[in-house]
Specification:
Blueprint: E1 3-5, H1 33-52, H2 63-75, E2 79-84, H3 86-89, H4 94-106, E3 110-115, H5 118-128, H6 143-166, E4 171-173, E5 177-181, E6 184-185, E7 188-189, E8 194-199, H7 201-209, E9 213-216, E10 219-221, E11 227-229, H8 232-242, E12 247-252, E13 258-259, E14 262-263, E15 266-268, H9 269-277, H10 285-299, E16 304-309, H11 315-321, E17 328-331, E18 336-340, H12 346-358, H13 367-372, E19 377-382, E20 385-395, E21 400-408, H14 417-431, E22 436-441, H15 445-452, E23 455-456, H16 464-473, E24 478-483
Parallel strand pairs: 2-3, 2-12, 3-9, 4-9, 12-16, 15-17, 21-22
Antiparallel strand pairs: 1-18, 5-8, 6-7, 10-11, 13-14, 16-17, 18-19, 19-20, 20-21, 22-24, 23-24
This protein binds coenzyme A.
Amino acid sequence: MDWVTLGGRSKKNALTEWEWNEDGDRATGKLGFLDFFIAAAALLIVLWVSANGPDRQYDVKPTDLRGILRYIPRFREKVFILAIDGSIVTDDNFPNLLLDIAVLRSLNIRILLVHGAAKQIAALAEERGVKASNLDGTGITDAETLQLSLNAANRLTHEILEGLSANDLRAVSTNAVIAHPLGIVGGVDHQFTGKVERIDVEMLQSLLAQGIVPVIPPLGFDGDGKTYRVNSDTIAFALAEQLKATKLIFLTTVDGLTRDGQLIRQIIVGELKQMLSRIPSDWPINLISKARQAVAACEAGVPRVHIINGEVDEGLLAEVFSNEGIGTLVYANEYTQIRRALKKDIRALLNLTKDSVASEELVKRTRASIEKQVGDYYLYEIDRNPVACVALHQYPEQNKGELAFLYVAPSHENMGIGSKLIQFVEARAREQGLAELVTLSTQAFTYFISKGGFMEGSPNDLLPARRERYDASGRKSKVLIKRLRPAA
Ligand SMILES: CC(C)(COP(=O)(O)OP(=O)(O)OC[C@H]1O[C@@H](n2cnc3c(N)ncnc32)[C@H](O)[C@@H]1OP(=O)(O)O)[C@@H](O)C(=O)NCCC(=O)NCCS
């Protein structure tokens, strides 16, 4: 099996070496009966929810089980930190979010929940007719605001515990965040604002191992029995770092990070760091805070940080279990790979390309025809989800190759993936000593010319057997040629 790693990853023996996963989240084992059982149980929960849950519209298909199964070995017993803004806890979608958490728990994912309380502190201050000195735990917390924070945060923690109980989840509130005063910064005493000193990892690990969901308020405790107001995003980072979380997921009130008003679906940490040196003017303060903690977390070894809108129904599950997700994924390392397809990938190839076949961009292929030449097909995967594909059919006797079946999912277009796949096929063809590549296209011929360096040819350039199939198809595709070495 061939693996190629792209971007910043190792290129040692790139075309022939099996290489897999530098982010430490490789499937921890093969799927066993237990995994199947767990997935079936998870699916039953989803089905139950679809039948009984308030206002939920799950469109559950039998293939969902297959979809869920794929993730089980990968996420089993891994730690996910969910950092939930206070406003999300009181949002109408929160009961749905709790159901999503129940699904994650049923898959044996270890969940730790940290919440903010800014909205509730503001509401309590108004109710009591006082002015809070700070809402999000980053400014000065005076004695009165500390009292507001204690009341608001503890009330919120309790609400979360109630919600988890209603979903049959065991949960507990802890004093696992050990803090000290932020102190005097720039000549200003921050009074009861605290800073995370350390996390009681042992306590949390032991709770997680027992299947208990720790719920962490935005407060820290010191050895003298004092409490400090601590910003929940910074607690989330400290938890993710010290518990070596697989994912840190911020659930907030916006869809994610944006560039020129457009949602950024995925961004490598280095690029986000650059953006933070010139922060877009439309990013709200609490989004900037999440972006900063995302960078810190990735740099501290957390492979994936997600920023998603907690008000979107099924958003959490979509983010975790679909490649496209709903928000922004910040990733610590290059995580894309091109690998040769296996028989078990045929369904994925057909699914991926079905719309393109329907719109006549790609010629229809049957399962049997792909199976016959499955070694010619390659998948481009992101986090092991196929988002693009290509095939190289070889005619060694004539020293020719055909680049075919190039397809990039619409969600991943214009990111250079098509070009990378053309380069990949070209490198592979050269490695095989082929002198010429040909490709047929109905709707992307200018793409092959401008981006792939192909030249327009004619049907006469096709080998006789291929010409026969070309004529029989009636598609009248354009023929494009690329010479890989000068004609002899
Ligand atoms: C054609 C296709 C493979 C391009 O993939 P991609 O990953 O989006 O392409 P890249 O990111 O490498 O390149 C993007 C550039 O190509 C251009 N481009 C994309 N599709 C194009 C098309 N059909 N015709 C001409 N140019 C096209 C984009 O406008 C963009 O141009 P820019 O760099 O000047 O802004 C993809 O759109 C696709 O899968 N199309 C449907 C299937 C198909 O037609 N396959 C070819 C037949 S084998």
